Amino acid sequence: MSEQGDRLKLAIAETGMTMSEACERFAWSYNTVKSNANGNASFSFKKAMAYAARLKVRAEWLFNGTSPMREPTKAQRRAAIEVPVVGWVQAGNLSDATAFHDMAEIETVTTDGLNPGKWFATDVHGDSMDRVSPEGSRVFVNSEDKDLVTGGFFLFSLRGETTYKRYYDDPVPRLEPYSTNPANRPIYLTSDRDWTVVGRVCRSVIDLS
After folding, report:
1. Residue 11: helix, strand or coil by DSSP?
2. pTM metric for this prediction
3. Domain that includes residue 19, residue range
4. What is the pLDDT of residues 152-188, one digit of tens each?
5. Same domain assignment for residues 109 and 165
6. From residue 77, how far is each of 7, 80, 111 by CA, in Å?
7. Is 27 left (phi over 0), alpha (psi -120 to 50) or beta?
8. Residue 40, in any domain of the structure
9. Which carries the bigger pLDDT value, residue 135 or residue 92?
């Protein structure tokens, strides 16, 4: 499935309802859903989240095809695993993070409940993401999840330097801070800079002791 409309039709079909029955049950506009499902009109990520909540699928999958279709069940989530802790990442300006190139770090941390993937952890410096990851937080990154999703939290690299930000592409691709400090500004992804997605940040924790 590569088209939004195809995925929407599949998600509705798997509920066992027809499109009209789903619209009646969820109080959706039939004409809008039909137009979205037929591919005549694309829908936003916000709309995908509304559909996904009712259809019990992942909004990211519905919006742009990012697998899996549904969140893994608790039984499918990994038990406790050892996750390597590498370097540190700057939540602000770009910072050197050469340690990311060596995943065989000695330090590890044990955690559970992570979805399948290739995980590492790193500590946050700076305040540009302090609404979710204050300085000193430890974030867990899935380096196998590199499909950009609007509003998602990611690590980006530029020629060996990394930064932790939210990704947005409307009206232009950019890395947005999520901060209480108004001095933090977006970083625009211009075509003359070779950006790389390191991975998606899926968990942020901080030790309060």
Report:
1. helix
2. 0.61
3. 4-64
4. 899 998 777 888 999 998 888 999 999 999 999 998 8
5. yes
6. 24, 10, 12
7. left
8. yes
9. 135
